């Protein structure tokens, strides 16, 4: 039985390509071009969470992440950037599921393809990013991207199962 594709189904398939294009464009920029620090200094110049965050310290990509090592605004920017990684791939995985669900007969295959497409693109993007000045490609970012993608795939699967999204 052939499933009838709607305009919505075509839009759902188009959205992952838009997201990948935005990710490609974003990772082509230098770190200085993307810096959020001037904006952060303007909006939270009083460092409202500094005392609360001062004791937070952890390793990420072989570096110690803390206010003492990075400075307050770089520390805040780190969380914004990593949140952007997670949510970009959340939506990428989410829309791959919605775009493929009527095109692929088996539900498990839609899920697997969606996850593999996200992991493949995250790997490609980090590799490509490593060739840009001032940027690094980190395996830990691929893992973070994958976590976002798997979460997005799961949420899309759940919403389609409950028939909240058609």
UniProtKB/TrEMBL annotation:
Q: Does this entry carry the keyword Protein biosynthesis?
A: no
Annotated keywords: Membrane, Transmembrane, Transmembrane helix
Question: Which domain of life, per UniProt?
Answer: Bacteria
**What residue intervals traverse the membrane?**
12-31, 83-100, 107-124, 136-159
Q: Where is the VanZ-like domain?
A: 13-159
Please give the InterPro entries that the UniProt record associates with this protein.
Phosphotransbutyrylase, VanZ-like
- NCBIfam families, alphabetized: vanZ_1
- Which protein is depicted? VanZ family protein
Q: Which organism is it from?
A: Candidatus Atopostipes pullistercoris
